[in-house]
């Protein structure tokens, strides 16, 4: 039975909009296949409706309730994978999630999202967007998630709503992050900027400083040569893997008191300045594999919380007995759960067992060169 269309709510809408009815039926058939009866005889196509308008619904029969070929249901407008070249018109004004991914949209125009005051999630992933009008988002006063990955954007869009909590804009052509790009965006929690042609000179000092609540920033697989300056102290995870960073300066991590995970693998780091680890007192995971380190970073033995430290595939030629553990026994607060040192010039038989005297779980240590990566 087509119970969806039988409910008073939907029937009212069907009948109020006779010229869209076939489209609506297509939607119902796709979305909720009949349970064997085929289209039931109860489904009226000619009978004059007795219209009972619901207060939430747009007035007047000329207002279509969903763009052609999209599916609109429970305030979700689903318009993905339709080969669309532009944002469709007449998206229901009460939409909270608009999915336009996997289309061929090239441009976002000034009025494309006009009036969508309730929109919380806008998905534009995998289109061909090169331009977003500076006022395109001005109606979206409740937008929380903006997904723009896999497009051809050369810059971060202007005037992103201040309500935004999550911005994903990886795999674009962005080569500049200006301080103004994120001005006043105090609600952002997640920022994903990876796989863009960014270099350190293209990132303004303090570009992220206004993100007072951000907990996750990922700028992986770009051309950064240093850790961006002036990162917010709220950061919990920072992923900068796959860049061209040559050095970890103590200064770059200053004030990151809450940082728990730091990803710096696949860079060109030869030095971690002494004092770097002291600036991130709550760090639990540090990924430094596939770099050019010649020594184990200083400060691990004194660090209270570090549990995972990946150092494989570097140029470490010697490991000292106090590199990981403080002098004496049972003096380390947190337990190591992962230490990797394989694929370094140091022969594993030259690393003395007492080096890991504070590691209680021996399987946490990956030392030999047997592990291929
Ligand atoms: C980084 O720079 C190199 C050389 O200039 C370039 O070939 C490469 O595409 C850049 N990488 C990214 C992610 O932009
Ligand atoms: C650090 O984390 C704690 C606990 O989650 C939180 O209360 C505090 O506000 C955070 N500090 C900053 C600077 O965000
Ligand atoms: C790092 O700095 C601390 C404190 O200044 C010092 O005691 C220690 O010897 C230094 N370690 C290295 C490897 O330079």
From TrEMBL:
Keywords carried by this UniProt record: Disulfide bond, Extracellular matrix, Glycoprotein, Leucine-rich repeat, Proteoglycan, Repeat, Secreted, Signal
GO annotation terms (biological process): cartilage development; chondroitin sulfate proteoglycan metabolic process; convergent extension involved in axis elongation
Location(s) in or outside the cell: Secreted, Extracellular space, Extracellular matrix
Signal sequence segment: 1-16
Disulfide-bond pairs as recorded: 66-72, 70-79, 325-358
Organism domain of life: Eukaryota
Residues of the LRRNT domain: 65-97
Pfam families: LRR_8, LRRNT
GO CC list: extracellular space
Subunit structure: Binds to type I and type II collagen, fibronectin and TGF-beta. Forms a ternary complex with MFAP2 and ELN.
Family: Belongs to the small leucine-rich proteoglycan (SLRP) family. SLRP class I subfamily.
The protein's role, per its UniProt record: May affect the rate of fibrils formation.
Protein name: Decorin
Upper classification of the organism: Eukaryota, Metazoa, Chordata, Craniata, Vertebrata
